[in-house]
Amino acid sequence: MTITPQGPNRFINRELSWLAFNHRVLQEASHPATPLIERLRFLGIFSNNLDEFFRVRVANLQRAAMVGNKTTTTLGFDVKETLVHVSQKVVELQEEYDRVFNQAILDLEKENIHMVDESQFTPVQKEFSSNYFKRKIRTHLVPIMMGPKVSFPDLRDGSLYLAVGLKVSTKARSSVRYAIIEIPRHLPRFVVIPSDEAGQFVTFIDDIIRQELYRIFSLFQPEHIFAHAIKVTRDAEIDMDDDLSHSLMEKMSRGVRRRREGDFVRFLYDQTMPLEMLKMIKENLSLTDSENVISGSRYHNKKDLMGFPTLGRMDLTYQRKEPLSHPMLKRKSSLLDQIMKRDVMLQYPYHQFGHVVDIMRESAIDPSVESIKINLYRVAHNSQIINALVNASRNGKSVHVVIELAARFDEQHNIKVSSLLQEAGAVVEFGVPGLKVHSKLFLITRIRNRKKEMVAHIGTGNFHEETATVFSDFAILTSNPGITSEVEKLFRFFSHNYERPMFRHLVVSPYSTRRKFSQLIQREVDFAKEGKPARMILKLNNLVDADMIEKLYVASQAGVRIDLIIRGICSLIPGVKGMSENIRVRSVIGRYLDHARILVFGNDGSPDYYLSSADWMTRNLDRRVEVSVPVLDPLLQSDIATYLDLQLRDNVKARKLDARMQNSFEGGKHGKGTIDSQAMMYEEYLKRLD
Fold first, then answer.
1. Which is the most buried residue in 92, 272, 308, 317, by most CB within 10 A?
2. Residue 367: is the preceding peptide bond cis (ω within 30°)?
């Protein structure tokens, strides 16, 4: 691709950039420094990511392609050409994935861990598998026999199936009958099986079912049985009708149910499947070769590798690092009192998310606490946050919860949570019509000595104790009246959308985020033109918005030095003379999923620091409620500066992002020492506890 400052190729295709991000995940699965079982889990993450990509992004492209031949994406790329490029890249990544998976299996062998299929079972393993099948699996199987009087089953999105062929002979002739078996989703995908040999043995549940096929279909007395895995991915868009007679929760529930009937966006099949079987399935599903019909290996749904058993081999997994207590909150009787003294910044997973849970629990029983307001996007199953809110409501606190029902793939869970909170007496609202509420806020109000005190949380990540052990996020806990009063305004806005509040400290989408950060970019441009130092460091998950990218190009041309740390999609092209030569882009992918959004503007030597819930995507800037908060405490600014410095010097997990999307590692720089920013940040916080 030729890139010129005036040419049309000023952006990287969003979809291809996302695939490049998933390639970085695949790199972790093949990296020799990644512990072996963690490599398998990265393979699972890659597969899970790709499933969601097809369910959402490819589905969107296919719908857009139906509009007409000249349909383009928001960045101007032809939709049909994009689909072709996506298909080609997915095939390329799948081939690499299979190589990495096969190598991981060989490396397991070297560790005396053996992945075996039914053809390799010893007599002891066959007996165990048969018993396991009878006890754990058989009652969950519903084989569907194909025939003129039986409709082809409605394949569920993301489920794994075995297409089974039965060769049956009669006196007159031989024929093949077909059946479909869904592999139960709720059972463990991997089974540890005993052996009379040394080592550890693991098999897919698929292979235990394969071994028992003759028993399942004994009625037909087949001469030969063969089985091949298939899987479909469906469009995940939820179609919300306009029936005003139903509540939002009812309409969302109906939309989630209809998602199961979404159009096919991918059909994956075992490449060794006989052509006649493949033809039969494609005809029944009304699939053509152009509709992402992709051949794969013997096993699908490798997202289940995220749950690969540890097998007691802690030497093959990441060394456990316990989340740390924050020095200001450690063993304190009242965390709210501590936050009243000064701002506290938590960074997960280095700090305990339990601090946030403890604040909620304290608020639930503190007689001086009058109200708790919180907005929720995603929460854990059996969430401790929800339990604390229920307890607070039952203790007579005013509990006001704003829940985003449209959090993709968490809709059903959020409906359940809403009902639970309402039953406990909490006031539950569903945000702002037409806008997703993606901010990460809570506000606790208490009255002491007839004085109103407020403590607020503004963060980059969800109130989700499970993801907080894996996602790297920041949260500010503050009693600063200027900020807490504006958080209070936001909660009033959630209830009364017709009142648009004004903010002096907080930066709020869709009203001021684009404008505010555009102004701060322009301020750096003005400094550069005056010959003053001009600097920006932007850490985001995704950078896609064309207008903001163009502003960064303008800043680069003015001489502003810009470092971007982008975990996922980056549509900006760095390093192009006359356009972006002052912009460097890197991505850090490692043990933890970097999820924080941090924005630093040099301000002529007095930097402004912001934490944000918003990526620089059009949806986050213009169609969601997002909140960015200035970090005002110099000590907390210093902590952020330390973190960003490590990320910019990382030469272990950092990749260089450029127009070619090759994901080359930034190794060998900054002297002989290795800098793993994630590992070193944990050590930095650990030292502070001494």
1. 308
2. no
